[in-house]
Specification:
Length: 576
């Protein structure tokens, strides 16, 4: 019989073993998280390097606006204005990146050219480049109806009454393109009423020391006025398009506003106008009008009330002059709001979209959990029937399958969980359940390719025992594939992550030859070696298995050493 001393030693060993198990298990999870963080930091640094002016080809724009003769960079918004041979502004062209670089599809954002005509209607879109998976992108490009559905759509209807369709088999990629187009067109319409930008010549009339104008990043349409030494001596902005809806006697007027170095209004000048010509001339010739509001700062201009002021207007052109003065206040208020919004930015939210497909996927996940944690998992009929559901629904119909392409995409960019609740539920079940239990829910119950191998195992009569030496070689395949995935994720080598695994084969519209070959070859191999692909060739399964709670969780294993080396590879790639 063991004495009290022996029992005390046993309890201490169990406590030590339990503590070591939690420590090692935490390390395994932290290691995966560390690689994901490094991938995110790498992609963010690449995105910052890419955030510059994106060249827009005139030839590409002419495919949508045949009369386009030139492109002029817009100063009051992103993109470029499109002009015809006479110099008339006939449209606007913009790319979705970098504005929409946080809107990702399956594994990355897509840069799309968007062309709008002078009536503020969409002329069309064209995909320029993408960091999404090639198969999903090809599916969108091959769906010729997809870009055509944008043509003729009023910009005001995007995201509202006009609903656009996604491409089956590339739902996330096509939805991201639709959202990106909607995002870049979400600002005010382009300025066609007063297209002429502020020129140095008209600024010099008020600030003779001015030698150059430098556009400000914000507010758009504002310019720093610089002298010969490059010092800022003032600011120039105009009331259009912010106050274009404010009408004088016959129409709106564009007013130039010059602020001094202390951000106080120095003087104003009428630019183009749709008002009555004699009245506009009277205002321009009045010596006192330019300095009506001299000394006002932006906040005072924004709160200016012409009705409460003592300004009577220019004799003979009262309505025109008062309208121009009021336009200054209207534009100042709009710019003031922009500044305040930037100082306290609103949290951008994407509406949560839960469709019947998401609900069905969640239902399959719940069913898998019930099977995994009850004696149903031992019933062959249940395994067979549920396996058919997983293959048919999660595989061929919904395509809710985890893969290295998906996981690297989610590590690289914010997870678009609002658009794929069902797929996120699958991912949570895959990683959270084995982290706290011994159940491998995803690999055993939710993976279509795993279910297909179980079907083969049920009927196959050939069972080949892999020789020990060969088993060692085969066991290294997932680690090698994970190393390749890291090299691709950090842009060390070019490659398609989806081509490393068979999962795209379950989505026929995007399946490539590599995925099809791996899928077929893996199933044939599994006919002789039970669950052969899962055991010897699945990098996604290897990642999930690494965080699985098991009886050996308190022991350092070969897998831990390999995982640590992979982290080291990620660190090296990050610093290269």
């Amino acid at each position: 019989m063991p004495n009290d001393s022996d029992q005390h030693v046993t309890v201490k060993k169990k406590r030590r073993s339990s503590g070591l198990r939690f420590l090692l298990h935490g390390y395994r999870f932290a290691l995966i998280a560390a690689i994901a963080i490094l991938v995110r930091l790498h992609v963010q640094s690449e995105d910052r390097a890419d955030v510059g002016p994106v060249d827009i080809s005139l030839g590409t724009v002419q495919a949508f606006l045949p009369d386009a003769a030139s492109l002029t960079p817009a100063t009051d918004r992103d993109g470029a204005y499109v002009q015809d041979a006479s110099g008339k502004r006939i449209g606007w062209a913009i790319t979705t990146l970098p504005t929409a670089n946080k809107i990702i599809g399956f594994s990355g954002p897509t840069n799309t050219l968007v062309v709008v005509d002078s009536g503020n209607n969409l002329c069309g879109i064209e995909i320029l480049s993408s960091k999404d998976t090639p198969e999903h992108l090809d599916a969108v490009r091959n769906a010729t109806w997809f870009p055509r559905q944008f043509s003729g759509v009023p910009v005001a209807q995007l995201g509202g009454e006009k609903r656009l369709d996604a491409v089956s088999g590339a739902t996330l990629t096509s939805l991201a393109i639709i959202e990106s187009v909607t995002k870049v067109l979400g600002s005010d319409p382009p300025n066609y009423r007063f297209p002429d930008e502020i020129t140095l010549e008209e600024v010099v009339e008020i600030l003779p020391e001015a030698t150059s104008l430098a556009p400000q990043e914000s507010p758009r349409g504002w310019f720093d006025v610089l002298n010969a030494d490059g010092q800022k001596i003032g600011t120039a902005w105009r009331t259009s398009p912010k106050a274009d809806q404010h009408v004088g006697y016959q129409g709106p007027t564009d007013v130039l506003v010059i602020m001094d170095a202390e951000d106080k209004l120095k003087a104003v000048a009428l630019r183009d106008s749709y008002d009555n010509d004699p009245y506009v001339r009277y205002v321009r010739e009045d010596w006192s009008f330019p300095e009506y509001l001299a000394g006002y700062d932006l906040a005072q201009l924004a709160n200016f009330d012409i009705e409460k002021s003592e300004i009577e207007g220019v004799s003979g052109a009262t309505m025109t002059s008062q309208s121009a003065t009021a336009a200054i206040g209207i534009a100042a208020a709009a710019y003031q709001q922009e500044r305040e919004a930037e100082e306290t930015p609103a949290i951008a939210t994407t509406p949560i979209s839960i469709g019947w497909r998401d609900l069905a996927t969640i239902g399959v996940v719940i069913a898998a959990l019930v099977i995994a944690f009850t004696n149903l998992r031992g019933k062959k009929s249940v395994q067979f029937g549920f396996g058919l559901i997983v293959i048919a629904y999660l595989g061929f119909f919904a395509g809710d399958i985890l893969s290295m392409a998906l996981l690297v995409g989610w590590a690289s960019h914010p997870v678009p969980w609002q658009k794929c609740i069902g797929l996120v539920a699958v991912a949570i079940a895959a990683f959270a359940v084995p982290l706290f239990s011994k159940k491998q829910v995803y690999c055993n119950h939710l993976c279509p390719h795993g279910a297909a191998q179980m079907m083969i195992l049920r009927f196959s009569k050939w069972h080949w025992t892999v020789p020990k030496k060969l088993r060692v070689v085969l066991s290294a395949i997932p680690a090698i594939l994970l190393a390749v995935a890291i090299l691709i994720a950090f842009s060390i080598i070019d490659g398609n992550l989806a081509a490393l695994e068979p999962f795209d084969a379950y989505v026929p519209t995007i399946a490539g030859w590599a995925s099809l070959s791996i899928a077929i070859g893996g199933l044939i191999f599994s006919a002789f070696v039970p669950m052969g692909f899962c055991r010897f060739a699945c990098p996604t399964g290897a990642v999930i298995s690494h965080v699985r709670w098991n009886a050996s969780s308190d022991q350092w294993s070969v897998r831990d050493s390999v995982a640590t080396l992979l982290l080291g590879l990620a660190v090296i790639c990050f610093w290269l």
